[in-house]
Amino acid sequence: MLRFDLPWLPPAEVRGNSRAHWAKKHRAAKRLRESGYAHALEAGHEPFQRAYVRFEFRHWRSVDLDNLSIGMKGFLDGLVDAGLIQDDSGDLLQHDGATLERVAKGEEGVTVYLWEKRASNDQLQG
Length: 126
Known about the structure:
The protein is an alpha+beta fold. It is 29% helix and 25% strand. The protein has three helices and four strands; from the N terminus they run βαβααββ. It has a four-stranded mixed β-sheet with strand order 1-4-2-3. It has a single domain (2-116), classed as CATH 3.30.1330.70.
């Protein structure tokens, strides 16, 4: 299992309910993609054939988990670009959910878990 501890949340421009200008969205998505790529290379892990992903968000206020998860798309695209996962389509990468922990202001972030899918019932326990 790989774990990426990121000291930031996806920018508002790439979240599900964003109404940002396309250029701002593009720049934010590019930064996320580059981050995913760099983290994948740094991990030095063999490529996953099929995988699960889980997001554990930390924020100082209650926010919509679906919008935060959508905002992580660029990061996942970077993992694909680096060859860590083959594709982020539903048959190769399955989302195992997302959680939100309330933290003090300034302690926001997200932990991304990625692990090999071996069997249809091989989900993260805990």
